[in-house]
Automatic annotation (TrEMBL):
Alphabetized Pfam families for the sequence: Mannitol_dh (PF01232), Mannitol_dh_C (PF08125)
Name the record gives this protein: Fructuronate reductase
Transmembrane region(s): none
Keywords recorded for this protein, A-Z: NAD, Oxidoreductase
Lineage of the organism: Bacteria, Pseudomonadati, Pseudomonadota, Alphaproteobacteria, Rhodospirillales
Enzyme Commission code: 1.1.1.57
Amino acid sequence: MPDAITVQPTTHPSGTRLSSGSLDSLPATIGRPAYDRAAVTPGIVHIGLGAFCRAHLATYTDDVLAAGDTQWGIVGVDPLSPAIRDALKPQDCLYTLLVREEGRDSLRVVGSFLDALVTADQLDEVLALMAAPATRIVTLTVTEKGYCQDAATGALDEAHPLIRADLDAPEAPRSVPGLLAEAIRRRRAAGVPPFTVLVCDNLAQNGIKVRGIVVRYAELRDPDLAAYIAAQVSFPCTMVDRITPATQDADRATVEAALGCRDAWPVVSEPFKQWVIEDRFPLGRPAWEKAGAILVEDVHPFELMKLRCLNGAHSLLAYLSVIAGIETIADAMADPQLPAVVRRLWAEDLIPTLPPVPGTDIPAYTAALEARFRNPGIRHRTIQISSDGSQKLPPRLLEPARELFAAGKAPAVIPLAVAAWMRFLLEVDEKGTAYAVADPMAAALTGIARANRQDAAALAAALFAVEDIFAPELVAEPAFRAAVVERLDSLMTVGVAATLSALLGTP
Ligand code: CS2
């Protein structure tokens, strides 16, 4: 289904707020819920109210509601901040999706969120909702770090402060594993079968991994509950994709001009979206395939392709760009050298690690990715993508590097990406502008960087020793260590442009 039709700026008087009451007075060109929202009942609790789920899950579900299946409304829960709830509630949880591509914006108001809650101040309500028989699926977009995992192994980080706190007070959980376990326990106690847990974050084998994390947490809490979760709860794996940069004030102004009323928190995305889901939903699911989702037996090949080719390239571009002072991915793709480096990453390091992907020509997929990265309507900030490198590098780039070495090959470009991340930890770009490193391990990582800022070999060695990030087999490879140190030394002494010239063999 198309997201909406092209819209022209409107001259409608401004000042009112988007809400159910203002839907009828929107310009005709703005897409809007093509169903009676009052007749929709909640069937999904979604945890993590960021922009991504509002551009992805919510639009697929909006299309299903429009197709007449009204039992799948979504209640959104933010585990941390009240900001998005407080923006959405006065708008009856309506918001605008602004889809941008060159020379063409389209807008649609999305209606699939029925309510919004925050665990920090509404925990009882959240748990009651998750335990309610009508809730048949709990979806999650809490980012990689939200699962309290050890990024190198994907296992529960048992020393995580939120996990320690939840094990002390398991009926008042604050962590995501704690929340899921407590909600499932309440359902079981009430004789209600468990919901399906649908993880929509960029983790390798996301359902399998989060199942392992939740079962381990439950083992520490109550082995009987752990056995129940292991036996009874379905955690299908998914591959999710839609580039969704953080909303800027300029986007709010664009949306207000088009709508003729104010939307406090619209979402911006590219036109492309993809969702591949393992079809294991014991209590049923929305017919997301009606909105273009692909339901499969095994997501793994799709997920590896996306996590490595899209997200891996994003991370490479982000670290090189932040240190070179390049602000967005589209700007990076206008650089004379960066696109060639990304193409080599795909062709030499990543595509050789991928299994066949059903119905997909992988070189055509990466060519399409290049066009998506170039979309000039999307101002996707490299500093945004640089966040949480400790969580993102292992599945995107370190695991393929490990696989290449295991197959007797050396990666051509991954050491550069790792070196760029190490250089990025110095918190100042080549033009002398300071930036902050956002990462759950930021204090430790920037401390290491500060202590070794003059010496590439010492900096790399100290970071290789961080076992939460680097698998021992990978850092035991002398060729990997040497290649990273060489690139890091080059980035620290001659900078990004000269390092890329040397890699590409350009003058
Ligand atoms: C990005 C992703 O911020 C990041 O790390 O690589 O958010 C990326 O834009 C999405 O996964 C695209 O589907």
